[in-house]
From TrEMBL:
Annotated transmembrane regions: 24-47, 96-118, 138-156, 194-213, 234-252, 272-289
Chief place where the protein resides: membrane
GO CC term (a single one): plasma membrane
Designated name of the protein: Olfactory receptor
Gene Ontology molecular functions: G protein-coupled receptor activity; olfactory receptor activity
Source species of the chain: Phascolarctos cinereus (Koala)
Domain G-protein coupled receptors family 1 profile: 39-287
Keyword Membrane carried by entry: yes
Length: 306
């Protein structure tokens, strides 16, 4: 361990430290950010205004879009400034706040995706009692559990990270994330890393297992359907969500389910671009392109106005 002097803040390096790449990166990610804002705001507005979309599935989708909107707005604007300027100073409280909000959004989305899988399971496995089971109160309860669980999960990780002492202020990343911050600690981070790994593993694997179980029951139910049209309709309502599940767990777990000593700044940046930027941006495309009701609602919104 080295002699430690607590730093007042951190210096974010942005997407790249190569001058030739910085301008190009800013242009690309600015376009992606604007597209993400328009896509998620459009879904929230369409679901809110169109009475045909006042169903549990779209209720959860509206919350998912709001979380994606908050997640990208937490990291991307400052990352763009950091990349354009070459670096960007962020104070210790601001860094902690950014980490808290980002982890909160990610954890809440994890619980919400599980709720959406359970909703699809009930809709396909128990269609006759679905309306009586999945009431408005039931939906609010599932969303409330997701938000509260995300709040607790994020509070733990923020406290677990910022009780460490940091000596090096240079974060080789475009926002305050857990893996790059652990590498800057001048105290032994192994206990903190182990605690974070255990908590993250329990939450991620539990949510993933419940999601997989829901889809196993869905596939088993659809396989016993005699109607080809019924099978196609069931798979079409689940395909969008299934793509979201693969993107979310495939990119997020690669960053938070591996030890800090195996962390590479370049790989960390690339992985973070996928789970913090591209996945929230892709969700509106996935749900609008593969859903007739959503496409009709968006067409109505943009052609006829609110």
């Amino acid at each position: 361990m080295i002699n430690c002097t607590r730093v007042p803040g951190f210096i974010l390096q942005g997407f790249s430290v190569i001058p030739e790449v910085q301008t190009f990166s800013v242009a690309i990610f600015l376009f992606i950010y604007i597209f993400s804002l328009l896509g998620n705001i459009s879904i929230i507005t369409a679901v809110t205004l169109d009475s045909h979309l006042h169903t549990p599935m779209y209720f959860f989708l509206k919350h998912l879009s709001f979380i994606d909107l908050c997640s990208t707005s937490t990291t991307l604007p400052q990352a763009l400034f950091a990349t354009l300027a070459g670096s960007e100073f962020i104070s210790l409280p601001e860094c902690a706040a950014q980490l808290f909000v980002f982890v909160f959004c990610g954890a809440t989305e994890c619980f919400l995706i599980t709720s959406m899988a359970y909703d699809r399971y009930l809709a396909i496995y128990q269609p006759l009692t679905y309306g009586a089971t999945v009431t408005q109160q039931f939906c609010y309860a599932l969303v409330g559990v997701a938000w509260v669980s995300g709040l607790l999960f994020s509070s733990f990780h923020t406290a677990n990270t910022f009780t460490l002492s940091f000596c090096d202020p240079t974060v080789e990343h475009f926002f305050c994330d857990i893996p790059p911050l652990l590498r800057l600690s001048c105290t032994d981070p192994h206990k903190h890393e182990a605690a974070g790994f255990i908590v993250s593993g329990c939450v991620i694997m539990s949510c993933f297992a419940l999601t997989v179980l829901s889809y196993i029951r869905i596939v088993a139910t659809v396989a016993h359907m005699k109607s080809t049209e019924g099978r196609q309709k069931a798979f079409s309502t689940c395909s969008s969500h299934l793509i979201t599940v693969v993107l979310f767990y495939g990119t997020g777990s690669s960053a938070y389910m591996r030890p800090a000593n195996g962390y590479s700044p370049l790989q960390g940046r690339l992985a973070a671009i996928f789970y913090s930027i591209l996945t929230p941006t892709m969700n509106p495309i996935i749900y609008s392109m593969r859903n007739k009701d959503m496409k009709a609602a968006l067409r109505k919104l943009y052609v006829h106005g609110p």
